[in-house]
Amino acid sequence: xxxKIEDVAKxxxxxxxxxxxxxNNRGYISNETREKVQKAxxxxxxFPNDVARxxxxxxxxxxxxxxxxxxxxxxxxxxxHIETICAARGYKVLLCNSLNQIDKExxxxxxxxxxxxxxxxxxxxxxxxxDYHKQNLAVVAIDRYLSETIPVVCSDxxxxxKIATELLISEGCQSIVLIDGVGDLETPARLRRKAYIDxxxxxxxxxxxxxxxxxxxxxxxxxxxxxxxxxCPEVDGVFATNDLFASSFIxxxxxxxxxxxxxxxxxxxxxTETTQTLLPELTTIKQPIDLIAKTAIDLLMKKIxxxxxxxxxxxxxxxxLVKGTTA
Amino acid sequence: xxxKIEDVAKxxxxxxxxxxxxxNNRGYISNETREKVQKAxxxxxxFPNDVARxxxxxxxxxxxxxxxxxxxxxxxxxxxHIETICAARGYKVLLCNSLNQIDKExxxxxxxxxxxxxxxxxxxxxxxxxDYHKQNLAVVAIDRYLSETIPVVCSDxxxxxKIATELLISEGCQSIVLIDGVGDLETPARLRRKAYIDxxxxxxxxxxxxxxxxxxxxxxxxxxxxxxxxxCPEVDGVFATNDLFASSFIxxxxxxxxxxxxxxxxxxxxxTETTQTLLPELTTIKQPIDLIAKTAIDLLMKKIxxxxxxxxxxxxxxxxLVKGTTA
DNA sequence: CTGAAAGCGCTTACAG
DNA sequence: CTGAAAGCGCTTACAG
Lengths: 327, 327
Known about the structure:
homodimer; about 325 residues; alpha/beta; 434 Repressor (Amino-terminal Domain); Rossmann fold; 3 domains; about 45% helix; DNA-binding
């Protein structure tokens, strides 16, 4: 069996209390004792049981991360950064892929509560707002409004939408279509759409919006996109609110005999490493994914440590236009 | 504060033992008592503390997953499937992005041990073989040989490499280059290279191999690839052992004025959802990522439950050629 | 500088 | 059918 503190104590000829003290570097210990204990720990290949520690300390150093799916490159990269930063700060990540399904989100939330996580980073639908501040748990949202008291971190979506739309306008596009996710959700990412609408109206044009039901199914994406060419054949510019939509559009356009960028210009959103490797020609708005992760964690740590109470409710982080050849 | 079992017991007018029994559905409880207890739990919004349970049960229901990075679409999708399947079976995932750095791997391994994980799925370098069976922990590897006793799950790499190379040969390529990761590691994925070499030699040709140092840096990839055109300008076929390499190659080729597939045919490996959305024209060998995840978890569960001792040491899962237009 | 005792929130024999 | 007691592996006052 795994050695426990008692085994170390016996071997070193001291009390468990003393072993605990050298483990935690707390209180006074003579160097001699410390060395004896350390020798015993090495000999037994002893590792403290963090479950027992958590129970006593009421601190698990566990962070729950709920997001739609790490299969999506944006969330895959976000997860990488979140986990890496957490690890550097002594926190561990319990991962939850909710696929934006409310029932899964609820189950995951309960699971995280049972596991005594110190905090949660949420990047998924989560209507269950009440559930969050019922427990007074540290929570930070990415790209979601959950409640007044839950900070939200996101890229500067309005600015991103503005830059994308302006680019298409300045390149002379006359019929600019927006391809976006479904519109029944009030999220910060919706500001990308708002910027598009604002700009088009300011230029006296009519916004044309196509909504793609779910991000995670290639076929349904293509079906919606195909409709664009039937209903709006004059399209000569597209702002897609994520790069996967943009890519799908380009593929459908190409197979419809429309050349990008000669006949239709396309701008995406996200600019992940993966997109930049697989589709470097895509012009897109790049989110600072590492900074989003870092900001979310900083806020969460502050909530956990209760250092500050007046955290900014919204953090809008700078985006960057990545010029490819599609626009 | 969070309610505990004692609070529920008091409110329901029973002993903690009884509450525990209804919680675990163990032993005889009268319906009346059960209802009283359940009512009290609802009223207090009680959730059992899984940390305390784990401590007693010596079972955390936690699975550690160590892999290079979820930023890579293959591992992002693998992580999604692993976590989803685990969740369905009542297990939780502690995620570790090691970036293939040995020191990180060691730290993560220790962290997982301290946290009393029931098992580990490893998809990263991990020379520290000894560390694994020192503790007699349930471990399953993906695409890595760790030791005699650790089952390894992978796609049928040899078959995949064979199909890819055969395709290029059958399409008339004369100078077929292999783009692979660095060669100092004895992994199952190395069989992709072996199949390529075997086939070329069988056809009386000389293998030409280029090695890319790390998967996670676009610039260094491109530097290596650029060399191909200098040193081997007659190249007319490329088998890249992952899709990111393939994509980088295509991009460099294009900017060198070489047309794919007209002048050079390209086959990749992995065939993730992401690649198929962003680069659907790529011909590639598709790994059954969901099946890899499921197989690894099945094996791990058996190890954890100690149902069987004679598990297959290697599981080679079927790959599939996905015909795009690049070859 | 070191140790015995109590307790973190739960569960499981053991009695009754 | 129900409860009192002991213990999972650790830590922290409290004594000495």
